[in-house]
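Reviewer comment 2.1 asked that we show a complete input and output for one of the modelled complexes. We chose the PMV case, as it is the one discussed in the main text.
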Amino acid sequence: MVQRGVFATAPGKCILFGEHAVVYGAPAVAVAIEQRMTLTLTPSTAWTVNGMALHAAKHPHIVSLMDRWGGVDGLKPMDVVVGGALPPASGLGSSAALSAAFLRSLERMTDRSVSEDEAGRWAHLAEADAQHGRASPMDTSTSLLGGLVVLSNRKEEDLIHRYDRSLDTSEGTVTWSIHSLSAELGGVHLVIGNTGVHAPTARQVQQLAERFAQHPEQRQAIGAIEAITRRGLAALKAGDAEAVGHAMTENHIVLRSLGVSSEALERLIDAASPTSLGVKLTGAGGGGCMMALTRDPEATAEAIEAAGGTAMITTLGNHGAEASWLDA
Ligand code: PMV
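Response of the prediction step:
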């Protein structure tokens, strides 16, 4: 049989509601975006990634997934080319998309499909391995499952429960329930604005933890974000785009009051605001990306670009990771 290659894609994500509060047990809602990572795997004599020999330190997600799959020896070597429209290290989940796309590629190559639960576990562990044991399953679950994903520390009524994940960390075992939310928001788009500033998630999370230690009264913001997230969820279920946008802006105001926004983010948010139903940062903040919910994506994208950002337009909720054979 002629050995064939594999083509896989996986979506990035934005967080609609609940970042940072989710670290303290509140729910969060993420959405799979149109911008995807692509992987092309073609038969080779040795494993390479973008022309470089595969290396555990440089390609931790791929090596972790290979190990869990049973090791490199059981796999035919491939040249892996990583591409697509997801900027790295900007809070859009590019590393999780890499894991999700590679996992789907392994399934294709070995003709062995894994359960949803197992796929979620392996992609999450690959992310955790690469991030020294700290990773929530939000990015990997959204990239694998697509659509709208709700993460919570308990099973949520009225949502489609997909699987549970737990992770042993130095602070103990953390558990999450992962759900899908089916919602239709007609006639609106998200416009993502990338500041181009890299602010590591771990540093942002640490700074907020220090702030809460110094000002315990500010922890009440977690409850405020949870209430906004639940309002946002209800608005999503009702298909009420205005109310979703309103909740996004409210969520941002609380995040800003906690010091996790930045001047560059605020510039893009101010620029997008007049043409949008709602605006907020997405992810850890400090840099990275903001997003706007809008009925006029071109105008919002133009305003973001004029303010110095890089704009990307997406619908809400795109399909999860998938892989297919390349023609022989
Ligand atoms: O910046 P991102 O996409 O990695 O999102 C981070 C979200 C946080 O809530 C700040 C951290 C987390 O692990 O959930």
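The CA atoms of residues 204 and 272 lie 24 Å apart. We note this here for comparison with the apo prediction described in Section 3.2.
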